[in-house]
Amino acid sequence: MKMNIERISKNKLQGYYFMPENAEELKNGIVITFGGSEGSSWINMGKSIADLGYRVLSLYYFGRPHLSRGLDLIDLNFFQDVLSFINKLENKSPITLVGASRGAEMSLILTNYFPEINNLILFSPSSFVFPGNKNRSAWTYNGNEIQATHFSTKSKIKKIIHRNLSWPDFFRKEFKTNKQAISIDISNFSGNLLTFSGSDDQVWHSAEMARLIEKASIKAQSVSCYEFEEAGHIFSNGLNNGGTFDGNAFAFYKSIQIMDKSLETWHSN
User: Fold this and answer.
1) What is the torsional sign of CA 143, 140, 194, 90?
2) In this structure, what is the dihedral angle of CA atoms 49, 201, 211, 153, given to the nearest 10 degrees?
3) How far is CA 37 from CA 60, 66, 95, 102, 254, in A?
4) Rounded-to-10 torsion of CA 174, 179, 181, 186
5) Tens digit of pLDDT at every position of the chain (269 positions)
6) Closest by alpha carbon to 104, among 193, 229, 12?
7) What is the rounded distance in angstroms from the CA atom of residue 258 to the CA atom of residue 13?
8) What is the DSSP string of 240-267?
9) DSSP 158
10) Distance of alpha carbon 41 from alpha carbon 260, whole angstroms
11) Residue 216 and residue 41: Cα distance in Å, rounded?
12) Which of 43, 172, 245, 251 is deepest in the core (most CB within 10 A)?
């Protein structure tokens, strides 16, 4: 599909805009992608979705001009600039967010402040609010820090001593015993929710957290959770992400196929 790709830098709107050239094939609404803690806009996923006939914004939420320098105290009001851009478009609804890892965590949190969000597609999601890189909150809204889970010094020392303890097992133990663990409130989201996770995720226990999200989505119009064997964190073959090369590749291609069907339903005329 022929595509116009534009780099966007307008205040806190930082990223890339994909616009299919053929207006007859253009689907309603817009899809927005957010990458993970690596600081990307997940532009490759944005291109994959745009090729299906959707307008796509692949956006940064830190590490770019007018945004937080790192994964700390990220002002979620940046999404107002995103909505201002979308409101100038024709057929601007529905709005679907596609988030990876910390981007999936943020996408869930955003639904508490922006009812304009209609659908969520989350890869390797978290059901908890994780801290930022400096052990403060990763997120703020209207100048207030969004309370995050904090791991005790005792827990961190145990992780250092027990080097064979994987990060997913560390997080399982922590969230089971930490009475101050902060879950993401998803109880008021009334749209559609789709999650993808790998059974061999070595970054955090995303498959289990996806089931917690499903259980907490009491008002959602629909919820579908997919877990893939031999797949790791966001189906990447990066170092220590988990899964096998073919397992991650299969999970990625299959998730695109499933996502295509869901988007077709949600964004139909």
Assistant:
1) positive
2) -120
3) 11, 18, 23, 6, 24
4) 130
5) 788 999 999 999 999 999 988 867 789 999 999 999 999 999 999 999 999 999 999 999 999 999 999 999 999 999 999 999 999 998 889 999 999 999 999 999 999 999 999 999 999 999 999 999 887 899 999 999 999 998 876 676 676 776 778 889 888 988 888 878 899 999 999 999 999 999 999 999 999 999 999 999 999 999 999 999 999 999 998 888 999 999 999 999 999 999 999 999 999 85
6) 193
7) 29
8) TS-B-HHHHHHHHHHHHHHHHHHHHHHT
9) H
10) 20
11) 27
12) 251
* Token pair recorded at residue 203: 């970054």
Q: Cβ distance 242 to 198 under 8 Å?
A: yes
Question: Distance between CA atoms of 66 and 44, rounded to whole angstroms?
Answer: 23
Specify the residue for token string 């090369």: 245
Question: Hey, what are 148's tokens?
Answer: 């995050």
Per-residue tokens: 42: 């997940």
What residues does 222 pair with on adjacent strands?
Answer: 192
